[in-house]
Every structure is written in structure tokens, then in C-alpha cells.
Design brief:
Layout: E1 8-10, E2 16-21, E3 26-30, E4 37-39, E5 44-48, E6 59-61, E7 73-83, E8 88-91, E9 95-104, E10 107-110, E11 114-116, E12 119-121, E13 125-128, E14 134-137, E15 143-148, E16 153-157, E17 161-168, E18 174-177, E19 183-185, E20 190-192, E21 200-201, E22 208-212, E23 216-219, E24 221-224, E25 227-228, E26 231-235, E27 240-248, E28 253-254, E29 260-261, E30 273-279, E31 287-293, E32 308-313, E33 316-318, E34 327-328, E35 332-339, E36 346-351, E37 360-370, E38 373-383, E39 386-394, E40 400-407, E41 416-422, E42 435-444, E43 449-451, E44 455-458, E45 465-471, E46 478-485, E47 490-497, E48 502-509, E49 515-520, E50 527-535, E51 538-546
Parallel strand pairs: 1-5, 2-6, 5-7, 6-7, 7-9, 8-10, 9-11, 9-12, 10-13, 11-14, 13-15, 14-16, 15-17, 16-18, 17-19, 17-20, 18-21, 19-22, 21-24
Antiparallel strand pairs: 2-3, 3-4, 22-27, 23-26, 24-25, 26-31, 27-30, 28-29, 30-36, 31-35, 32-33, 32-36, 34-35, 37-38, 38-41, 39-40, 39-42, 42-43, 42-44, 45-46, 46-49, 47-48, 47-50, 50-51
């Protein structure tokens, strides 16, 4: 009898069967000769091919159940390891098929990493059940079935992987993280159990690949564990394999691989995500796309009632004038059909302001009181066929009139800055008007109009708040609230969650130069918060999103 807490090397020329003895409650090797070998916890099993043996040696694994093992590892260094149908080989540790053949027609369950560096065959499944992060590397071999059952942890790809039948993500907290590797779902293979709590995380350049022909195919992807933003594709053209990945933020520039450059744009009017769509064979496809997002992904001025999918092509965002109301209720979805582009890592985004999202990529628009006048400043990151800006003012926030006209840059991939002064607005206070509203109407050369966010200025004959800004928003760490006022009167700040519960309250002495307030931190829960600033009867309200 062998009873050791050290690596066990097996050399044998005959067929070897591993069976489970219910009566003995242990794992044992039963051969046609003695002795029996009992595997105990903390044992590493290494299967080596004796160089003097013939290549016909096969080790048949009929059952290996590890109820008492706590740190096993299994390494195949040259045998043909066979797991028969209906049989489960459980390893409380890592499995490595370093040299030889692993024929899995049953179930191989492991709590550690799985690495295949030689030949893997069979229509069985690999089951990953560890409570901490696991990795899988199939080398060049496809995998028939993969069962991820981790309940709150991730499986990391260490190589491109092809699935030929299914991936089961049933349950909460079962994630596959691609990094820079592709997950290829071969034609006919499916996901089961994918959803808001179990999906594919595209945190690098790796894509989820699926065949799309005729009916709709869901790509269950998200850019992070807490951000499920799937894409659904339907193709009425030539059947093709499409790759999808989603990344945080919207950018003014992407290279030919769909990798963004520069700093993220301010997401005021957009969903703060970019979906990258790629196809194996360019041309011949006619796509309908549906993208899904969450409230926390929306910019502060996103118009959910009139939004649309825009694509990035030719170095800039292309306008889409077919705006529509988003469907659903957190999550939300919007669709676009009839796309016949050649999809080569093409970025797509969702813009949300009336008529035409993302023909001009806005960096910012501010309206501030400057003495008796209103100072309006705005900037764009990119412009495509932009003709001019019309500055509009409203007394009630609904009915706008034109008050100025500014020529646009036309076509630009660099930052363009604009400004205009609306003089003597203090005169409106004498007529009982306390607030003025401003917006920009950006006209394309083809006559299409793209409206900016609406900004307001509080006016009276007394000194008041002149500027309020919050950045970054949304944020996962600190945000910074900037407040400037012509009055030194004490101002109050309070933050509540969406239920009205008070989270923060403070008083500040403001000045014209402005005060900067740090907000947030890692301990503040994710969600939507309302910031209210009051001074001398004037109130400013902002929405703050914590991711």
C-alpha cells in the first residue's frame, strides 16, 4: 500500500482503471495486481509515459470522486487519459495535459486552472467550480462543452478558445473574461443561463464570435462584472461570423482595430459605451442591431425618448437622424436596421438628443452670467459636414428664438472652441423673468439639425450663482463639484439618493472665483444621486451617477 503526501508517479504497461469505492469512502487504483493505491488529500497525481512502454497504453478513468481531497493536481505527461461517458473526474486543484491525449467523453471538474498543451478530444464537458479566479487554455483544441459554476468569480481565457456545443453560465456570478483573446462559438453552439449576472466580459481586445444568419443572435457581453450591455444581431444577407466587444466610454478617434485613442468624451448626451462590430468576411451582410444599456450608463443630458444608434466611419461619428424612444425599463434598448456596411472593427454608439445623435461630438456647453450679460461657450471634439451653429434663447424652457449665428469648423478631428455674448440679460429681471434658457442648434451642410443640451441662467438684480459643474459624471471614484457665485451669502449643498434619503449635507461660503468640493469615494454605493445647491432663493439641481 502506498500512503504518501508527495507526488505519485505511475509507470505501467497495462490498462489502469481508477474506480470509486463507496464502501471504503476513498479513491483507489484497482489493477490486476496488488497493491492498491489510495489517493489522499494534498496528493499530486502525475501520469507519465514510460519511454520503454508501447504507445497502446491507455489509462481509463471510470470515476474519480474527491470528497476528501483539498489540494489535488492532475498532470498528464505522456499517456492517453480517457474519461468515459457518464463518468466524472473531480480534481480539487489544477489540471494540465502537458504531453499526451486527454479524451474527455464524460465530465472533468476542477477547482483550479485547466491547461491543454497537446491533444484534447471528446464530447464531454469541462466544469470549472473554484471559488476564486480560474484560467483555461485549450491550446489549439476545440472544447465541446464548458460549464462555469463559480457563484461570483471569473474564468479568464489564456488563449483563443472554440466551443462546439454549449457554454452553461446558469446561476449568478459566472463570468468569462476574454482579455485579449477571442471566444469562438462555432456554428450551432449556444449559451445557456447567460444574463445580467452571468456573461462574457470583454475587458480587452478579445471578441465574442458567433455565426449570424437569418434569425437574431444575442451576444451576452459587458465591459465589467457589474455592467451587462448585450448586443443582438440579425443578418438577412450572406451568413457570416461576427465578433462583438463592448468598452467603456465614447471617443473621438478609433484605429482600424477598434481601439480608441485620446481621452474619453464627456458623455452628457450619449450612452457611455462603445460596441465594436467585426465580421469574418467583409461585405454581403445586411444587419439589424440592437444594443442594451442601463440607467447608470447614461449621460446626464441623454434623451431616452429620442435616441439612435450611430456608427464611427471615415474618422468621425456619422449622423443617424432616425431617432426613436428606447424600449424597456432599465435595462433599455434601441435598434437600427438595414446596415450594409463592411464591418471591420466598426465602433457603434448611442446618442440621445433630438434629431441626430453624434454628428458633432460635443465636449461641453456652458451658459454663465457675467455681469449684466450671458456668456455662452461651447466646444466640439469632432465635426462632420457641420455648417453653423444657431444660438437660441427661451423664457420658459420650451419656446426658443434665435439670437445669434456662429460659423462651424465644417470637418474637423481636433477640438474647436466657440463663444457668444448675449448682452444685458438683466433687463429681463425687470419684467419678472428670473431664468433664461439657452441651447445650440447645429446645422449640417445637408440641412440636418443637431441640438445641444439646454443650459439655464438664473437672473435677478441681486448677485447669484454663476457656474455649477460636476466632473467626472458618471464616476467610480471621486467626483469634483465646482460652484461659483457673485454672492458671498452662505450656500447649502445636500445629496440624496433616489429614495430621498439624505447622504450628505454642508454649507459653503461661495465667491466669484469658485469653490471645489470633493464628493464620493469607494465607500459610496453605486446608484443615482441628486445634488441640490441653494443660495439666496436660487436652486441648482444635478444628477450624479455612481458606477
Amino acid at each position: 500500500m502506498i500512503n504518501k503526501f508527495e507526488p505519485l508517479n505511475i509507470y505501467h504497461d497495462d490498462t489502469l482503471s481508477l474506480v470509486y469505492s463507496e464502501e471504503a469512502k476513498c479513491r483507489r487504483v484497482v489493477e490486476s495486481f496488488s497493491p492498491h493505491v489510495y489517493f489522499q488529500s494534498h496528493i499530486t497525481l502525475i501520469l507519465n509515459l514510460n519511454p520503454l512502454a508501447t504507445m497502446k497504453k491507455i489509462i481509463y478513468i471510470f470515476a474519480l470522486l474527491a470528497s476528501s481531497a483539498s489540494a489535488q493536481t492532475l498532470t498528464n505527461n505522456g499517456t492517453v487519459l480517457y474519461i468515459s461517458p457518464g463518468t466524472t473526474l473531480s480534481v480539487s486543484g489544477s489540471v494540465s495535459n502537458t504531453l499526451g491525449t486527454l479524451n474527455n467523453s464524460g465530465t472533468l471538474s476542477t477547482t483550479g486552472n485547466f491547461t491543454n498543451a497537446d491533444v484534447y478530444t471528446g464530447n464531454g464537458k469541462i466544469e470549472l467550480t473554484g471559488s476564486s479566479q480560474q484560467s483555461i487554455d485549450m491550446g489549439t483544441s476545440p472544447l465541446y462543452n464548458l460549464d462555469v459554476n463559480k457563484g461570483g468569480s471569473i474564468v479568464v481565457l489564456n488563449n483563443d478558445m472554440t466551443i462546439t456545443n454549449y457554454i452553461d453560465l446558469t446561476g449568478n456570478g459566472n463570468y468569462i473574461q476574454l482579455g485579449n483573446y477571442n471566444l469562438n462559438m462555432q456554428n450551432g453552439s449556444v449559451f445557456t443561463g447567460a444574463g445580467t449576472q452571468s456573461f462574457v466580459v470583454t475587458d480587452g481586445t478579445g471578441k465574442l464570435l458567433q455565426n449570424v444568419s437569418g434569425g437574431s443572435v444575442v451576444f451576452p457581453v459587458g465591459s465589467a462584472l457589474a455592467s451587462y450591455t448585450p448586443a443582438t444581431l440579425a443578418n438577412t444577407g450572406t451568413s457570416d461570423v461576427f465578433g462583438i466587444r463592448v468598452l467603456d466610454n465614447v471617443y473621438s478617434s478609433y484605429n482600424n482595430n477598434g481601439v480608441p485613442s485620446g481621452s474619453p468624451l464627456s458623455p452628457a448626451q450619449e450612452v457611455n459605451k462603445t460596441w465594436i462590430v467585426d465580421e469574418a468576411t467583409t461585405g454581403g451582410s445586411t444587419l439589424a442591431l440592437t444594443f442594451t444599456w442601463n440607467t447608470a450608463n447614461e449621460g446626464g443630458s441623454f434623451y431616452r425618448s429620442n435616441c439612435a444608434i450611430a456608427l464611427f466611419s471615415g474618422g468621425s461619428w456619422q449622423a443617424n437622424t432616425n431617432g426613436a424612444a428606447a424600449s424597456g425599463s432599465n435595462p433599455y434598448s434601441i435598434s437600427r436596421s438595414g446596415l450594409t456596411n463592411s464591418f471591420a472593427n466598426t465602433p457603434f454608439g448611442i446618442g440621445g438628443n433630438p434629431n441626430s445623435p453624434l454628428p458633432v461630438t460635443w465636449l461641453g456647453f456652458t451658459a454663465t452670467k457675467k455681469g449684466n450679460d450671458a456668456q455662452l461657450n461651447w466646444s466640439t471634439a469632432t465635426e462632420y459636414n457641420s455648417s453653423h451653429f444657431v444660438v437660441q434663447r427661451s423664457l420658459n424652457g420650451k419656446d426658443f428664438e434665435d439670437i445669434g449665428n456662429v460659423k462651424a469648423a465644417g470637418n474637423s478631428k481636433s477640438i474647436s472652441n466657440y463663444n457668444i455674448l448675449d448682452p444685458n440679460i438683466i433687463a429681463f429681471a425687470d419684467k419678472g423673468i428670473t431664468t433664461l434658457y439657452y441651447r445650440l442648434a447645429q446645422y449640417d451642410l445637408d440641412g440636418q439639425i443637431n441640438y445641444s443640451i439646454v443650459r439655464s441662467i438664473y437672473i435677478n438684480n441681486e448677485k447669484s450663482i454663476t457656474q455649477v459643474s460636476l466632473y467626472p459624471n458618471p464616476s467610480s471614484g471621486m467626483s469634483y463639484l465646482f460652484i461659483a457665485s457673485e454672492s458671498s451669502e452662505l450656500a447649502s449643498i445636500q445629496i440624496t439618493d433616489i429614495t430621498g434619503k439624505l447622504i450628505y449635507k454642508d454649507n459653503l461660503n461661495l465667491n466669484a472665483q469658485g469653490k471645489l468640493v470633493e464628493l464620493g469615494g469607494e465607500n459610496l454605493a453605486k446608484g443615482i444621486y441628486v445634488i441640490q445647491i441653494e443660495q439666496g432663493g436660487q436652486r441648482q439641481v444635478l444628477k450624479w451617477v455612481r458606477e
